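Severity: low
Component: inverse-folding endpoint
Summary: output formatting inconsistent between runs
Steps to reproduce: submit the following structure tokens with default settings.
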């Protein structure tokens, strides 16, 4: 073989080998860059809870505020709000805010923990409790007894065409979970009753919203295996309870100024400003757990649901679902519009449907 041919062959082989290594190097470098660009894998459950929304969402948005405003209009029976508040109405606001600091000491304003609540909780958590014991406890509260019968006859629970007429049968039909879902709202229902006068629909609408919030908070906790579903339910109704307390206080201060007609905007501003704090004050007086106080504090601080505790998310999504389904029930929103708000705030389509269906079982 001539020397020039051998040299040419060697050069060709060398170029081929160099090309192979160049391609291999470039591919390896590309893979390294892709790996570096990938987000780190989070393995600790403390970093992101299993039920946390996949992306960070704000506590509130224009859509949420719009839905809130629509429900306030429904409750107060007005078409619009004028938030310019002057003179006598500003004085009424000042009187209410001054009274808030003393509310915990005044039985007329501040709801005490129902005496029956801890007894029933203990009985429901005790596997040795008999049905007769539960019936006996429920009979101590006529309102609770009536509500238990009514719930057992709901199409969601009723298993036959025959109506449930005895409390013993009602307890059997509902079971422990059904009773848990009934307790806090039924026991607190009397607090939502108001004398006729101004804004007569407020108590009715507030009670409907409270039931929806509580039921959805419980359903969320059950579905996500979060904290105690009954605690979630209790906290869901507690924030609504703070709303009705503020309404009572404001109405009382207006009655002390007989020449001033109540304005819906004053009530709304006070509720928006002080409801979260008042709910925490009630929870402290009721000696609820630190986890419960933290969940309520997350609502007051308007923490993103992405960063809330599991219990805080149950309260948040329970309240949000209660709000949008109330608006849907009264023809202010379409079901699709309500679900769109829930999904935008971090719920999956499946979970949003579950909570909406839960709210639909609440009787207005």
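Observed output (run 2 of 3):
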């Amino acid at each position: 073989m001539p020397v020039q041919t051998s040299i040419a062959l060697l050069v060709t082989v060398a170029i081929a080998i160099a090309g192979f290594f160049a391609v291999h190097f470039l591919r390896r470098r590309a893979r390294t860059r892709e790996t570096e660009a990938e987000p780190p894998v989070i393995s600790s459950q403390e970093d992101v809870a299993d039920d946390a929304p996949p992306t960070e969402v704000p506590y509130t948005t224009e859509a949420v505020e719009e839905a809130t405003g629509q429900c306030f209009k429904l409750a107060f029976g007005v078409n619009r709000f004028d938030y310019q508040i002057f003179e006598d109405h500003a004085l009424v606001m000042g009187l209410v805010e001054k009274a808030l600091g003393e509310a915990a000491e005044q039985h007329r304003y501040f709801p005490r923990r129902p005496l029956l609540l801890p007894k029933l909780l203990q009985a429901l958590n005790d596997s040795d409790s008999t049905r007769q014991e539960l019936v006996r406890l429920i009979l101590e509260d006529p309102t609770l007894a009536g509500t238990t019968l009514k719930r057992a006859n709901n199409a969601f629970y009723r298993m036959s065409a025959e109506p449930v007429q005895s409390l013993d049968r009602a307890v059997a039909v509902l079971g422990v979970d059904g009773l848990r879902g009934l307790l806090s709202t039924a026991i607190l229902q009397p607090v939502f009753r108001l004398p006729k006068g101004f804004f007569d629909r407020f108590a009715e609408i507030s009670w409907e919203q409270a039931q929806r919030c509580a039921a959805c908070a419980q359903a969320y906790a059950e579905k996500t295996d979060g904290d105690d579903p009954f605690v979630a339910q209790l906290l869901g109704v507690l924030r609504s309870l703070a709303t009705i307390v503020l309404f009572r206080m404001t109405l009382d201060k207006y009655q002390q100024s007989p020449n001033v007609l109540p304005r819906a905007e004053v009530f709304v501003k006070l509720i928006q400003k002080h409801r979260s704090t008042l709910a925490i004050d009630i929870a402290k007086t009721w000696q609820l757990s630190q986890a419960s106080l933290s969940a309520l504090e997350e609502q007051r601080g308007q923490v993103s649901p992405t960063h809330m505790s599991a219990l805080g998310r149950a309260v948040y999504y329970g309240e949000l679902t209660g709000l949008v389904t109330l608006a849907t029930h009264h023809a202010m929103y379409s079901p699709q519009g309500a679900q769109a708000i829930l999904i935008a705030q971090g719920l999956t389509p499946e979970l949003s449907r579950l909570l909406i269906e839960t709210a639909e079982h609440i009787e207005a």
